[in-house]
Amino acid sequence: MVRSKRLKPIKKLAQNNEKAAAKALGESLDNHKQELQKLNQLEQYRIEYLTEMEEKVKAGVSGAALQHYHQFLNKLNLAITQQKDVIQKSTEQVDINQDQWKSKHSRTKAISQVMTKIKDKEVKQKEKKESAQIDEMSTQAFIRRQNSNGLG
């Protein structure tokens, strides 16, 4: 079996690994986008909640209700902080997956380049061999003609 054909399974494996890495990267990007949307929703809700709280304070609200608003606002701020931590981890995962995809992609590309060089070399060797065979047949035909002309 020629060398280029022996490398086909290796190339296929590299391509499969690259596809898996691309899929993982896509999934982590989707997840990151969702986490950013959650943060945006929490921050938007916080703004709406603060606006509502300000209106109620202006209208006159009891101390207990104001305390309730502050407690809920603290919980909302904590949720925002936690969501920012989730986003940080999500960003790190995207970076990891992106690095892994780049690595797999580079490997696939390198294997493809090696296979191309090997195939080119095999083609040149085949052409050289065929040329040598044609030269040999031509030489033998010439010798046969010389021998038949010399004898006749």
Automatic annotation (TrEMBL):
The keyword Iron does not apply. It is a peripheral membrane protein. GO terms for biological process: bacterial-type flagellum organization; bacterial-type flagellum-dependent cell motility; chemotaxis; protein transport. GO terms for molecular function: cytoskeletal motor activity. It holds the Pfam family FliJ. Keywords: Bacterial flagellum biogenesis, Bacterial flagellum protein export, Cell membrane, Cell projection, Chemotaxis, Cilium, Flagellum, Membrane, Protein transport, Transport. Residues 136-152 have a biased composition (Polar residues). It is found in: Cell membrane. Residues 119-152 are annotated as: Disordered. GO terms for cellular component: bacterial-type flagellum; plasma membrane. Residues 119-132 have a biased composition (Basic and acidic residues). Belongs to the FliJ family. This is Flagellar FliJ protein. It comes from Aliikangiella coralliicola.
